[in-house]
Each structure stands twice: as C-alpha cells, then as structure tokens.
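Our preliminary data section would be incomplete without showing what the modeling component actually yields. Below, a chain of 399 amino acids is followed by its predicted structure, encoded as tokens that our downstream tools consume directly.
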Amino acid sequence: MRKIILLVLCVSLSFAQSFAQSRLVTGKVTDESGNPIAGASVVAKSSKGGTTTGADGSFKLSVASTVKSLTISSLNFIQKDVMIAANNTANASLVASAADALGEVVIVGYGAAKKRSEVTGSLVTVNAEKLQNKPTANMFDALQGKVPGLQIYNSSGEPSASPSIRLNGVGSLGASSTPLYVMDGVPIEGGSIVSLNPEDFESVTVLKDASSTSIYGSRAANGVIFITSKKGKVNSSKITLQTQYGVSNLVKPTLNFFNSLMNTKQLTDFWIDTRYQTPAQIASLLATYNADTKWYKEFYKEDIPMTQVDLNISGGGGKTTYYVSGSAFKQEGLTYRSDFERYTMRTNLTTSVNNWFKMGMNLFGGYDERQTNPYGSNNLNRVFHCYASPIFLHMTQMA
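Predicted structure:
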C-alpha cells in the first residue's frame, strides 16, 4: 500500500512540475487594415509547438515558460516574430507581400482573381513597369512586342488613330476579328482606349485561347484584353509628378526615298537627253519657273513636339485606399491639320467594411480634341506629291 501511495505522489509531483514550466499564450493575427487573418501559422520560437488561427484570427498555444517569442506567417504576408507579453498575449499585424501577391494571382474576368496555377488557359500579364514611361498616346503602342501572338497594325500616322488589334491572326473573313476589351470588369469599346491615360493602368492581362469564352461568352471569340487600373496602398502615401517631351520626324528610309527624287537640274537634263524638250524650251521654262522645290517639306512638318504631364496621388489609411490622377497630353501629327489633345482625371476609392465585404468607387472623366488630315494616303496632297515637278513653286513660296 505504501508503494502505491509513493508512486502516486511521484507522478503528481512530476505533472505539477511539468505544468508549472508551461504557459498558455493567446493572441490575434490581423492585416494592416485590422481584418483578421484566418489560417495563419503560429509557431513557438525554438520549440516544436504550433497552431493556426481561427476564422476570427485568434489563437491559443501552450508553450514552455522559456519561450520568449512566436513566429507568425501566412500566405501573401511577410513572416513576423512577435514577443510574448508579460500577460501571456502575443498580437500581430502582418504586412502584405506585394511581390508574392502579383506573382501568384492574376485577373481573369469580372474583377475576379485566381492563382496562376489554377488558370488552365493561355494568358500573358504586362505589369505597370513595362507600360509606364512610354511616350505614346495609347496603351496599344506600349504593348508592342510585349505579348506573343498579339499583332498591332497602324494604318495611319494620325496621333489620335486607334490601331487594329489581332490575337493569333484573323479569326473571320466576314465577322469582326477585334478582341474584347474589359477595364476593371466593365467591357469597353476599343476606340475609347485612346481616350484613356496609360499611366493609370496597373496591369494588362491578355487571354488568348478558347478558355476566355467560358468567362465572357461569344464576345471573347477573338480573345480578351483585361485592363486593371491603379489603386492606392495602405500606409503608403505617394505623390508623383512626371513630364515627358519628345519630337517626331519622318523615318530615315522615307527621307532617303524623298531625297533620291530628281532635282530641277537632273530632271531638265533627263528631258533633254530623252528629247522630251529642247534646250531652248528648257531655257524658256527655267526663265519663268526657276525653282528646286522639295515637295515633301511642303506637306510634312519637322521636329513635331509631343508633351505629357501626369500628376497622381495615392495611398490609404485604416481600411480605405485612394488613387487620384490627372493628365494632359498633346501631340501634333506630321502632316498639317493633324493634332490630338487629351485631358483625363481618375479617382479610385476602395474601403473594406469587414473581412468579407469590400466596396469602392471608380470615377473617370476625360476630354479630347482630335483633328485629322482629310487627305488619305492615295491623294495628290500626300504620297503622290512626289510626282510634282521640282521646277514649280508652292503657293507659300510664291506669296
């Protein structure tokens, strides 16, 4: 009987000693906006004990009395070590990892985000870093060479012209081959892209194969170009002002072609050699029209300026983020009576009511003026001007 009592006392003392060397730590894990993070991993520093947070972000963990801190981590958040307070609590606020979020999540339709590993279709995402600082009037020019299979055709040199876009070639001879354009979940017309400021775009996702029709139906038969506008970030206020200036001229091969045409002496010598006119007739002609006109200089301008000014303010605090931008763009065309001016303003406001409900407001306003040269490419006042004789004077030269 004495042995049984001694054994019970020894076991009781050992249990009491073990209990005295551990403590129960409680806490809550939230994000920067104060929203609870469910499923976060909570591990005792230098120990094998660990647990995960519940739906409300709280946890309970029994740790040894020698443990001084906990390691807390969660997907898309930066890992953090938290010291255990004297009252056995350890609360943590995790900071989102923007790089991880962009790398693992893509926009696929109606504003929904999915992990890239879950998307079976062919898609390419072009981020803001590749779109910004491009002196272009529209987003299409900034996308050239960035997406395999994306063909951009510019049939006009007008600064206000909208290029033709084709994904993997022409899909139909009779029907439209233009892809569907969606901005922040709302379908828009392709012609309105030139009225938007590319500096406001966070990313452009191109859905290229038949899987895009499962999201948008037959309208996506030629692919989908999904545009996401910029939004502010919590605890990251920023004011950005940038300007761009450039000049445009005819490309060198075109200039070489125009300069290779005959001047007045070469033309009159050719007429004499071919007996088209006699030397006496040439002398009489030159006595009246003794000029050597470069006709392309009369129809095309040189050093055409392009200016753009962008101002945006972004940031956030608590559960609300904001992005406000304004832009002014002006570019003249190489031909006369060709001009494009654009003024835009955008406001993106987002607030998180709780961990499952988020609301926001996207406002955009723009005004642009477009002037297009009325003479097309097959016109005496454009390409065919090179057939004009250099002997004659232009009206401005005669004045």
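Residues 21-96 form a domain with the Immunoglobulin-like fold (CATH 2.60.40.1120). The chain has ten helices and 21 strands. Preliminary results of this kind motivate Aim 1 of the renewal.
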